[in-house]
Write a structure and sequence with these properties.
Protein name: Hemerythrin-like domain-containing protein
Structural class: mainly alpha
Organism: Zoogloea ramigera
Bound molecules: fe (ii) ion
CATH superfamily: nmb1532 protein domain like
CATH class: Mainly Alpha
Distance between the termini: 35 Å
Number of strands: 0
CATH topology: Four Helix Bundle (Hemerythrin (Met), subunit A)
Number of domains: 1
Largest sheet: none
Helix content: over 70%
GO cellular component, one term: plasma membrane
Order of helices and strands: HHHHHHH
Mean pLDDT: 92
Domain Hemerythrin-like: 4-137
CATH architecture: Up-down Bundle
InterPro entries: Hemerythrin-like (IPR012312)
Strand content: under 5%
Length: 192
């Protein structure tokens, strides 16, 4: 069940970053905070590399096993599978909105709106997983299921040659260090 703990931890990390970006955008919009474009870029990178490309693939093998054992979770699992599959399109919208804003500061509102949509989607996604799926994983999957699902996830990561060794915990700490108080320990300029 180590995977379940990791999934819950990742949900918390994602919720923190989403909250931080939302807070910063509100402050920038109100003229109380100078935008840190590098920090926004790093945060969107974190959402792409960590949430979209690593977190959902860790869930997929577990969700597929649960579908075989828990018919009452079928609707939620089908919806979540569609949402996982839409990850590339979802993050592309956010990346494009950020790039447009970097090229033209007048596009701030459009970026803020794109981010709000993204954050709102994630709130619902995580709530659905935590209410309809994670408790059932706990009761319906056995140790062999957990081990097999984790092995599939690791094989998937290796086959896609993702930046598997990227230090996400370190990046998370850096993001928090640069985000303004009270959500972070900054503001402090983000540097690579
Ligand atoms: Fe997910
Ligand atoms: Fe999740």
């Amino acid at each position: 069940m180590e995977a379940l703990r990791i999934i819950s931890d990742e949900h918390q990390a994602l919720a923190s970053i989403l909250h931080a970006i939302r807070f910063m955008l509100k402050e920038v919009g109100a003229g109380r905070l100078a935008p840190d474009l590098k920090l926004f870029q790093a945060m969107v990178h974190y959402l792409d590399a960590y949430a979209e490309q690593r977190h959902h693939p860790r869930e997929d093998p577990l969700f597929i096993r649960l579908a075989e054992r828990s018919p009452e979770a079928a609707d939620a699992l089908a919806r979540l599978a569609e949402q996982h599959a839409a990850a590339p399109a979802r993050i592309a919208v956010l990346q494009q909105a950020l790039e447009a804003y970097i090229a033209d500061p007048a596009r701030f509102e459009a970026f803020a709106q794109a981010f709000d949509d993204y954050a709102e989607f994630y709130r619902g996604h995580i709530m659905l997983e935590e209410s309809a799926v994670l408790p059932r994983l706990r009761t319906h999957l056995d140790a062999a299921d957990w081990a097999a699902a984790e092995a599939e996830f690791q094989a998937d990561m290796a086959s896609r040659d993702l930046a598997a060794h990227e230090d996400f915990a370190g990046l998370f700490s850096k993001l928090v260090a640069c985000a303004p108080a009270p959500i972070g320990f900054g503001p402090r300029p983000f540097t690579d």
